Amino acid sequence: MSAPAVARRPAALATVARVVSWPLAAFGLALGVVARVLLYPLHRWRGRDFDGEAYGAQALAYLGFRSTRFPPLVAPVPAAGESPGPWNEARRRMCKSSVALASWVGTCLYLYVAVAAQLGWVAGNFGAGDRDAVFAAPTGFAGPHVLGTDQLGRDVLALALRGVTTAMWIGVLSAALSSVLGTVLGAIAGYFGRWVDVAIVWLYTTLESIPYLLLLLAFNFVLRKNEDFVEAYRTSFLATDLKLSLGVTTIVLTLGLTSWVGVCRTVRAEFIRQRDRDYVIAARALGLPTRNILFKQILPNVFHLVLVSFSLLLVSAIKFEVILSFLGLGLDPEEASWGSMISQARLELLREPSVWWQLTTATGFMFGLVLCVNLFADALRDALDPRLKH
Amino acid sequence: MAAYVLRRLLYGIPILLGITVVTFLLFHVVGGDPARMLAGKMATPEKLAEIRHELGTDRPMFEQYLEFLRQTVTFDFGRSWQEKRPVGELIVAGLAPSLSLAVPAFFLETVLALALALYCAFYRGSFVDRSIVVAAVAGISIPSLAYIIFGQYFLAYEWKMFPIFGYAPLPGGVAFLLLPMVIWVLLGLGSEVRFYRAVMLEEIQQDYVRTAAAKGLPTGRILFRHVLKNALIPVITRVVISIPFLMLGSLLIELFFGIPGLGNMTVEALNRSDFPVVKAFVVIGSVLYILFSILTDVLYAWADPRVRLR
């Protein structure tokens, strides 16, 4: 996105963005504090220490809106006057763009809706059909069915809200799976070179040569037909603890295992560029273990690429869910997902009078999320890589 | 050049082997037992054994793989399990409908995207440029099914501008292909414009453009002779590498508009567990991809004399 000619700091929007991201930050910091407390004996034993007081003070200052500096989750807290580091720098750059802030606010809101719906706070009875109100027209906020009902009398708004959860699960899990896979393989290939590189490049060239949609459809299809897989799914924590349906699990696995090629290629190229830099040679000379060099020394310098790929993968996963569900390879019609809503609703347009609300609602919800994440990915890429000017 | 092409073709062999292994694993290991699917839930063990024998899935894995490899090399994929016709025949039948939609639509989309991108890059930062960028982002955020469903409903059903559904061979069936083409272009335009705009912007900020403008060349000449020519490499890559995927057409569009092309066939084959057909599509698509990626590299050298093929 091109920045507006006069870049003014959108103060109101920035405040909204900070308030909206507060729960997320609080959750992340709480996790960070817990991890630090748990790991404290280990750190002491290794002869390392961290300044828990400074960390806690910085965390409280951030959460109390008294500082804009986010306390780093792994590195020591920088002292006053010290460089805030590339991530805080990128954050500062993003706060200047109203598009970035607005898309971040939107993404956060979707995320909270997803969490609320997963916990049953919102749209808890989305599956309950009202036999007397089949295809009821939208009533607005005055009536019982704000956005109407579907062919089983289920509330369309509740279905769409519940669909946010489904989309988020699919998007986040599959993007995380393929990002991790792509990053690890790309790092190994780029760093070690030689036959490891040849093997991994061969693997991803092979996968890439297969037409993607076909690979996706075929993989998804055979996975669902495999009784052993279905059995393994039923007893796994995915089904019993997370209550993810078979359709969601299959889509996550299919997308996660097939869409890592792009990340792998980027990470590999970057690792090849980094592996002979001075800091890597120094790390090697100091005798750091290879795992440390790969993932603690080099990876932080490459991580911005992974982050951007992650958000783009998230978008494409949500889009593919719709296509797969439509083709009957995704979620079951009883599940609340935008894909199954759209595919059910497609013939309802032809009814007299036309039933347009289910299709429009699902399309609108999906459009909002995809637009926010797309814009955010663009802004992220611009902020993390200032050389790029799109 | 010939040596380079030959070497690249040889590199293609391990890739092709990889593809056959992936496909084979997919259908023979991950896919479970096809006989049980074909026979249905109530089949007797004898019936199952009979079907397995007929399909050849009772033979050792390695033997089956060799058979699949033989099929790949000879492009003879046996018979469809459902249609009982040779797979090759099916593919040839589906090729014409697919291509008659895909080729003009893809051409139109590329030309339109290039024109818009060139316009945006030239008037960068202007209101029109920013509107096009915003429209492109919005365009790629709308679910593809929404384009198809709303397009079909409003343009064809409500306003009766196009036939709703159906196919007839060219040249008689042009009317049936118009709406699918329009939707195809709309579907892809957003991401294409974004990509080409970035490419053009990169080029248009180069020194030679300023030099050309300074010595008084007309704008049209700068844009079409200088910028477009220099931006050709990424354009070629994107266009050529998309060609193998055109074969499948846009699966969803073919499905919605009842065009009996390869995309439609794929979905049908998947729905009916027709493994030989899907396997054939996967392998043929991949072979085309390998060939076209070699073609891309050769075209690189042709477009940019600085590129040496090694």
What is this structure's SSE topology?
The complex is a heterodimer of chains A (about 400) and B (about 300).
Chain A: H1 11-45, H2 52-63, H3 85-95, H4 98-118, H5 156-192, H6 194-209, H7 212-225, H8 227-235, H9 237-240, H10 246-258, H11 261-274, H12 278-285, H13 290-326, H14 338-345, H15 357-384
Chain B: H1 2-30, H2 34-39, H3 45-55, H4 61-74, H5 87-122, H6 127-141, H7 144-158, H8 174-204, H9 207-214, H10 219-230, H11 232-246, H12 251-257, H13 262-271, H14 275-303
Helix pairs in contact in B: 1-4, 1-14, 5-6, 5-8, 5-14, 6-8, 7-8, 7-12, 9-10, 11-14, 12-13, 13-14
What would your notes on this structure say?
The complex is a heterodimer of chains A (390) and B (310). With 390 residues, chain A is an all-alpha fold. Chain A folds into 2 domains: 3-84; 112-388, MetI-like (MetI-like fold). Chain A is built from 15 helices and no strands. Chain A has helices spanning 11-45, 52-63, 85-95, 98-118, 156-192, 194-209, 212-225, 227-235, 237-240, 246-258, 261-274, 278-285, 290-326, 338-345, 357-384. The longest helix of chain A is centred in the middle third of the chain and has 37 residues, at 156-192. The model of chain A is unreliable at 1-5 (pLDDT under 50). Chain B has 310 residues and is mostly helical. In chain B, helix 13 packs antiparallel against helix 14 (275-303). The termini of chain B are close together. Chains A and B meet through helix 6, helix 7, helix 8, helix 13 and helix 14 of A and helix 1, helix 6, helix 7, helix 13 and helix 14 of B.
